[in-house]
Specification:
InterPro entries: Homeodomain-like_sf (IPR009057), HTH-type_TetR-like_transc_reg (IPR050109), HTH_TetR (IPR001647). This protein is an all-alpha fold. It is built from 9 helices and no strands.
C-alpha cells in the first residue's frame, strides 16, 4: 500500500509550504505538531495522515529546504573559481537568506548527531552539492585531479566557516573582508599535475 506521504496532493503541498515558512521562523529543534498545526491552520491528525509521521514531515521539510538551496545555487553566475566563490558568498551573506541558512546549519548539525533520524545524510548531501557547484568553475582538464578537489574543499571550508561566524555575530563586513582576503591571497588555478618523468 502506498504511504499517504507519497501521494501528491494540493493540500499536502499547501501545508508543506506553510510548515516550511514556519520552520524558517522557528527552526526544527523541538518541533511539535500541535503548535505547528495551529499556526498553519491544520491539525496534528491531518499532518500525520499526509506525511505519515513527524519524521516524515521533517524529511519533507529538509527536502524542501534543499530544493530551495539548490534553486538559488543554480541561478548563481559561474565563471572562474574565485568569481563563483564571491557570488556564492554574496548570496550566503544576504539578509534575506538568514532563515534558510540558519535552518541549514541546524539540519547539518542534527545530521551529524542523529545520523539515523530524519536528518540522515543531509550534511553529506549538502557538501556534495556545494563541491559540485565549485567544480563547475574549475578547468575541465584539472577538475578531477586531487589538487583541484583539495582547492575547492578548502574554499568550501572557508565559506562554511565564515557563514557560521556571520550567523552567530551578524557581522557581514568583517566576514566578507575575511572571505575576500582568502580569495586574494590564494592562487585561483590548481597546479598542473607533474609529469611522471619529472
Amino acid at each position: 500500500m502506498t504511504p499517504p506521504e507519497a501521494i501528491p496532493s494540493a493540500r499536502r503541498q499547501e501545508l508543506l509550504e506553510a510548515a516550511y515558512a514556519y520552520a524558517l521562523r522557528t527552526g526544527l529543534t523541538g518541533l511539535s505538531l500541535r503548535p505547528l498545526a495551529e499556526a498553519i491552520g491544520s491539525s496534528p491528525r491531518v499532518l500525520l495522515y499526509l506525511f505519515g509521521s513527524k519524521d516524515g514531515l521533517i524529511r519533507a521539510l529538509l527536502a524542501r529546504a534543499r530544493t530551495e538551496e539548490l534553486a538559488h545555487i543554480e541561478q548563481l553566475p559561474t565563471g572562474e573559481l574565485h568569481e563563483t566563490a564571491r557570488e556564492l558568498w554574496r548570496w550566503l551573506a544576504a539578509d534575506t537568506h538568514r532563515g534558510l541558512l540558519t535552518l541549514w546549519v541546524e539540519s547539518y548539525s542534527r545530521s551529524l548527531t542523529d545520523p539515523d533520524g530524519p536528518w540522515s545524510d543531509f550534511a553529506r548531501d549538502t557538501v556534495t552539492d556545494w563541491l559540485t557547484l565549485l567544480a563547475t568553475a574549475q578547468p575541465p582538464a584539472l577538475r578531477d585531479t586531487a589538487p583541484a578537489l583539495a582547492r575547492r574543499t578548502l574554499l568550501l571550508a572557508v565559506l562554511r566557516g565564515a557563514l557560521l561566524d556571520l550567523l552567530a555575530t551578524g557581522d557581514t563586513a568583517r566576514t566578507t573582508e575575511a572571505v575576500h582576503l582568502h580569495l586574494s591571497t590564494h592562487p585561483e588555478s590548481p597546479p598542473s599535475q607533474p609529469c611522471e618523468n619529472d
